[in-house]
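User: Run a structure prediction on this.
Assistant: Running it now.
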Amino acid sequence: YYSVQIGEETRKLEEVLAELQKYFNRKIQMRRQIVSVLTYPTIVLLVTVLVLYFMLTKVVPMFSSVFRQFGSELPKTTQWIIKISNHSGLIFSIFFMVVIGLVVTHYSLRNKDSYRAFTSKMILRIPYFGNLIRKIYISRFCQSMNLLITSKTTLLTSLSLTSKMIDFYPIEQSIIQIKTDITKGASLHESLKKHSIYENKLVSMVEVAEQINQLDTMFERLTEQYNEDINHQTKMIGVILEPLIIIVIGVIVGVIMISMYAPMFDLSKIINN
């Protein structure tokens, strides 16, 4: 909306619409790629939860009833699995209540600054994923700045509109301080350097762009570089997560089955004797 308004005021609506097309095209492509990468792991995790629920509520009780008939002492792991099975209904109820509670809490507090500051800080601390999310929003920052500066918008106006286009608390708050610094006479790269959300590469490239007066071109190149990094990292998520999830599922199911079958061998020896 604001970009179109600027295009109308500066009589560069055609250029602004062309840049907006690039902006939304990149945004949609990035979203589709992330969704496609995370779809398989999400489905596998849901199936894993259902399999665990079935094993703990149906399979394990069948074995435990057999073990009770013989009255022999069971291995520690088997005892733990049986105890978990006996309380599986309560455990899964608490799990789903916690998930629902987190979702409700998120939607009720998502517009509060304190909650947004806390959640964004936690997200950025997640190994690997935090760095990926940082790059996604920095890419949007660069793309928005390129769009607005190309439309011959002033730097302060571009920053103000960028903060409205990017719904990420650390960048929104940093832009407020950056605008204040620029008003006092500081350069853009000096203001960016004060905030940890922006990488040193971005600050250095912006410094060079300010010296040669090519901010719009530099932001376009930075957008392309960050998009390439994001594409590579999202592909690596699929490469790493798929075998990792299979290993985790195999370990969980294997522990349950070994814990259930190990006493059966002991019982067969007792029967033979």
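The chain is about 85% helix and 0% strand.
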